[in-house]
Predict the 3D structure of the following.
Amino acid sequence: MSDTTQGPAAYTVVGGGAIGGTLAFALARAGHPVTVVDADPAHVEAIRAHGLVLARGDRRTSVAVRAETPDTFDGSLGRVLLAVKAQATRGAVEWIAPRLEPGGYVVSVQNGFNEDLIAEYVGIDRTVAAFVNIFADVVEPGVILDGGAGALVIGEPKGAPVSERVRSLVSDLQSWGPARASDNVEGCLWAKAGFGAMLAATALADAPMADLIDRHRPAMAALTSEVFAVADRRGVTLQAFDAFDPEPFRQGADAAAREAAFDRLTAWLRTQSKDRSGIWRDLAVRHRPVEVTTHYRDVIAYATELGLPTTLLRTVMDGLRELEGAPETMSEGRLDALDRLTGGPALGDADPGVRAGLDEGDPGIRAGLGAEDSGVRGGLEDGDPAVRVRRWLEEHREEMVADLAAYTAQGSASDDLDALDACLAWLRGWLDERLGAAGSEEILRRDDAGDILIRRYPARDTTAEDARPVLLLGHYDTVWPTGTLESWPFRREGDTVTGPGVFDMKAGLVQAVWALRALDALGLPRPAVTLVLNGDEETGSLASRDAIVETGRDCRLAMVFEAAVDGAIKTARKGVGLFTLTVTGSEAHAGLDPTAGASAVDELAAQVVRLAELRDLDAGTSLNVGVIEGGTRSNVTAGRATAHLDVRVASAAEQDRITRALAELRPVNPRTRVEVTGDWNRPVFERGEQGAAAAELAKSVARGLGHDLAEASVGGASDGNFLAAAGVPVLDGIGAVGHGAHARTECTSVSGMVFRAALTGGVLVRLAGE
């Protein structure tokens, strides 16, 4: 909306949520013409009907503003307050840029670092920087809950001197509260990034922010110091705001000053009417993705460029991403795990060379940073090996993603032998590059399926009495036809990656390899491992099942890197039977001689009813008649009909029962003949004592990483079924976390890859000592 009137300046607020709605209300109440543009039609309709409402306790006040969606807005833009979520910035500015008047500008009243992105579209001269710390929430369409006083700082980008337009903005925005101008907005933004990291961590649990920060001071201080270490290296002068003073939270700060700062901060937070963060509300109430992971993407990228560790920050971001799909798993145990990661409560009491009060000698942090760069060392004291592995993997996550991208680019359709050969050749080269030469290698050639690769790697520093190897099992074929990559290549968006086979199961193999790579890099012990990759799993493993079982017989445990829906490991799978029921009748003219023939279709219908009686869902037995075919013409009694069956059973006893029942089928019409062909494609994988012990081992490792690992029994089968039936303990579903197997929605999680690889590494280390 153009600012051409002689009265109070007009404003357009793009994004009418907590921040945008609060400022829009204050400006409108002060007499400014205000237009709110928001993508939520319900929010817009509520504002049109009842005005923009600000709630303070039991009192609600309404002001009239114009409200539009981006599709209904018509006009140009002058003074724009951009208040969308950080992840929506690009789309919003793409919408704003063609409508922005030559003298107009965009003020980033957002969380995070967004000015550079805005300037890409509208120019640095039409971009205004802002720091905002407003405690508010959208509690229902059109209604903003005022959470109390906060801070608002406006300035030119890149630290330029305060301009007349900034002074004018500040004057208008003082209708909200203590808005002020500054030439160091960047210092405020970085201070808020440190404070915001604490608030983000509190969203890992369901309790008041002040209480969680108070109870977990070591983790909160270490987390904040990671952020401020990046700011310091970038030459930023941190600015205090509200009750938060950043100085006591910098690395090497006085411990007593830090405790006093915690006291002031938590006391102030307890005066706020809003006791939980907007991040918590997005997860627990709105069940939507959080924007904070976008905020800290820049911080982590800067840290990576500078060689600085961000172990705790990455752990918090990973935890929030996990909670996006399972908010019910919020737990203060996640914060307990952060406390353990700090290695102790004191951050600044030690020698200044020990960053964040943590043992700089830990090889888990030094790996990849350069042995001589003591200024950027830091990390965790020697402790849980899985934690050390995870920390190392966090510093190498982008390399893991690059490997998955390269692997996904290798087409490997189960029915394309040339593609499978090329993919396996690529895998062999990649394995050499990542793990070095194996102790031995076998390639079992198959004429009608992908070849089988078996690589054996010797044990290192093991003290376990059981010297048998651990089998790492996976498949490199996918269900996706050759050519799929042309229309659906590997893509990454934030923590999510998509592409043919990323979930089932290319990410799983990347995790297994990087787990071994981490153990090697950190010099941690591991048992002997045998890596087996087959190229026909998706078509039933008919050419590889015998080799898999033969290789696995001498292994103490088989870890199957199949995908993990909802993150659960699989300790039981149903057996799968694929059968065909064929009925043979006799043909005749259906009209001229209807009794002369014997209808195979009629008989098949009767047999289908009998088959349905074999189901026993309480016992875990399902039977599906998936495809029926029969007859030749409508006026001919059908001489032949077939039904294709899929049978799933949860126990060997049920498998025996179904086998007998199918063998005993007899025709209802004695003039027809019935025949059952096919077999059990996968035997039953039942949860035995050894498998249960392996699951408990994995759960124990996961708890050390701050996770409660679930286990599941599923109807789908894998090559683990063959091994379990042969008496080999199996830990299945230890691969990628995601969903959409065999569908265009197939995707996996980068943070999930890091966690599952660390879980694998932790299990292997434990096995090396047991």
